[in-house]
């Protein structure tokens, strides 16, 4: 009888063994030997042929929890197998034996002499794995050890940032785990810890089986056949996560410009064949959240209003703050996100996808469009004029619309025009009838925004009356005449913040944020020719008037006045 090292039964207790018993040949046996069957072996060595008899001997009914440690051992072996399968796929090898990562020197040879000077030591990195609710399911445990083993193999021990309810489960697996919270708070805590440690932050997904880099010549033209051929002919490198991070960081620090990118990452698809018609590195593109590097000196955090697609916003914020990013178009990952149990998959549904897309496109309207091939997905394309927020284009768009409206107005009678104006006026008056006077004084609370320019602009309107600050702005009406914005027929606003200044280098165009609080709730009225932007950081620094009682109070978003 031989005992197996890896249990096959998920309910078998840790102190029990599983074995195979050989039987003697009988008249109906095939071949020269007998058969085999599985037996259960107690800690004292007693053999049982049936589960119910073994449970009776053990004095209790066996559950999946009793055999969990055995299943963890199995998951570790399966994780190593998954890594080897991924590496064999990259090399397109059917040979047996262990497949190791390629030498770091092969990858670093792609760098130029200047960039190689910036190759860091592994101790300069703070490796972080963001995960949640995956340590109690065998599939999740397998993925966890798939990532953990590759990082340990590369010589680093990662910190796992998980939700509070799961931290004990992750620690039970022998991982260095800390409470991070939900997705974006965990990502921000990882960034904060790296800053505190004065290290470069590397964030890794919890289901990566391989890192790959392809080094080769570009295709002669943008043709699928040529691009696929170039991709197939390229040298294939299996790289470690540490080598991948070092490579990206060296590229970031080695750019000739004074403004260095602070965010770098990999191509977002499993195959980079389509990138072989273009440059190997992109500077104003999406950086995938599965694996990215944030250099020291970056103060950009994730927007915690986003529960999904937070990496899109993070990339845009870095492009705005540091002039660009560094995406390695020839480096890819083997991941399996959408079928995972736990993690972000548990909050991914149509409603949450749509809500997050609304937040994203509200902040960066000119940088995103709907993906025509994938439902609830977006395509990021940073505009050539750098107007991702839509400040220039919205003004142009408004001017065009005003011009068209002026042309159309010539074709209608004076009577119709008067009727239209009256209808609009009635509707507006109904909306803002209960609002207090525009003589209300805006007072900055002193709360600093995470974005320096927002705090600076809030200070500029501190102590001024609503109507005074409105009077600082000028816009053109449909006839082309300049006037102060009075879109609702009067100057009765609850609260607003002017984010503008002619001498402001960050944003020379006028940018108006108009906010309205009515008892409970948050509303915004769109002014002609102005881009409306919702900024939670900015709102928190305003003192507003309660529409119900007229008292001047600090109102957090969607909180009723207590006076």
Which structural traits does this protein have?
single chain, 563 residues, alpha+beta, Methyl-cpg-binding Protein 2, Chain A, Spore Coat Polysaccharide Biosynthesis Protein SpsA, Chain A, eight-stranded mixed beta sheet, four-stranded antiparallel beta sheet, 24 strands, disordered C terminus
What's the short story on this structure?
The chain has about 575 residues and is an alpha+beta fold. The protein contains 16 helices and 24 strands. The protein folds into 3 domains: about 1-60, Methyl-cpg-binding Protein 2, Chain A (2-Layer Sandwich); about 85-380, Spore Coat Polysaccharide Biosynthesis Protein SpsA, Chain A; about 415-555, no CATH class.
Question: What does this entry look like structurally?
Answer:
Residues 393-410 have a biased composition (Basic residues). Residues 388-418 are annotated as: Disordered. It is a single chain. With 563 residues, the protein is of the alpha+beta class. It folds into three domains: 2-58, Methyl-cpg-binding Protein 2, Chain A (2-Layer Sandwich); 84-380, Spore Coat Polysaccharide Biosynthesis Protein SpsA, Chain A; 413-553, no CATH class. It has 16 helices and 24 strands. The radius of gyration is 31 Å and the shape is globular. Mean pLDDT is 76; it is low at 1-5, 395-407, 415-437, 473-477 and 485-563.
């Amino acid at each position: 009888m031989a005992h197996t090292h890896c249990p096959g039964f998920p309910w078998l207790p840790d102190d029990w063994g599983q074995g195979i018993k050989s039987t003697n040949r009988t008249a109906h046996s095939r071949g020269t030997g007998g058969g085999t069957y599985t037996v259960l072996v107690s800690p004292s060595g007693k053999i049982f042929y049936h589960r119910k008899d073994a449970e009776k001997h053990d004095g209790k009914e066996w559950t999946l929890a009793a055999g969990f440690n055995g299943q963890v051992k199995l998951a570790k072996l399966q994780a190593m197998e998954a890594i080897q399968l991924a590496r064999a796929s990259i090399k397109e090898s059917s040979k047996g034996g262990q497949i190791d990562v390629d030498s770091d020197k092969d990858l670093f040879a792609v760098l130029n002499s200047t960039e190689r000077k910036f190759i860091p030591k592994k101790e300069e990195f703070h490796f972080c794995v963001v995960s949640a609710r995956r340590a109690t399911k065998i599939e999740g445990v397998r993925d966890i050890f798939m990532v953990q083993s590759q990082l340990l193999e590369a010589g680093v021990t990662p910190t796992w940032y998980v939700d509070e309810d799961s931290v004990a489960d992750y620690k039970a697996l022998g991982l260095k785990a800390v409470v991070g919270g939900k997705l974006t708070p965990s990502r921000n805590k990882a960034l904060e810890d790296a800053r505190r440690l004065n290290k470069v932050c590397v964030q890794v997904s919890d289901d990566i089986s391989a890192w790959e880099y392809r080094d080769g010549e570009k295709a002669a033209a943008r043709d699928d056949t040529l691009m696929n051929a170039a991709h197939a002919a390229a040298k294939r490198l299996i790289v470690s996560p540490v080598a991948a991070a070092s490579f990206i960081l060296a590229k970031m620090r080695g750019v000739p410009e004074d403004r260095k990118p602070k965010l770098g990452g990999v191509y977002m698809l499993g195959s980079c064949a389509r990138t072989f018609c273009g440059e190997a590195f992109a500077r104003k593109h999406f950086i995938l959240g599965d694996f990215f590097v944030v250099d020291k000196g970056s103060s950009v955090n994730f927007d915690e209003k986003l529960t999904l697609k937070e990496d899109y916003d993070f990339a845009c914020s870095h492009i705005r703050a540091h002039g660009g990013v560094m995406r390695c178009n020839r480096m890819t990952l083997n991941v399996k996100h959408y079928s995972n149990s736990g993690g972000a998959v548990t909050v991914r549904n149509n409603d949450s996808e749509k809500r997050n897309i609304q937040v994203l496109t509200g902040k960066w309207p000119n940088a995103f469009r709907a993906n025509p091939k994938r439902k609830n997905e977006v395509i990021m394309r940073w505009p050539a004029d750098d107007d991702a927020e839509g400040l220039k284009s919205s003004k142009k768009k408004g001017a065009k619309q005003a011009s068209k409206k002026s042309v159309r107005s010539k074709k209608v009678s004076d009577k119709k025009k008067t009727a239209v104006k009256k209808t609009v006026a009635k509707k507006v008056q109904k909306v803002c009838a209960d609002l207090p006077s525009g003589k209300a004084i805006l007072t900055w609370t002193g709360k600093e925004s995470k974005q320096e320019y927002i705090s600076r602009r809030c200070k500029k309107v501190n102590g001024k009356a609503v109507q005074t600050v409105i009077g600082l702005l000028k816009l053109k009406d449909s006839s082309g005449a300049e006037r102060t914005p009075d879109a609702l027929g009067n100057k009765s606003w609850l609260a607003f913040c002017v984010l503008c200044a002619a001498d402001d280098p960050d944003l020379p165009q006028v940018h108006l944020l108009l906010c309205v609080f009515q008892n409970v709730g948050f509303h915004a009225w769109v002014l002609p020719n102005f881009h409306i932007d919702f900024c939670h950081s900015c709102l928190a620094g305003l003192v507003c008037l309660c529409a119900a009682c007229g008292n001047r109070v600090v109102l957090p978003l969607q909180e009723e006045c207590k006076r």
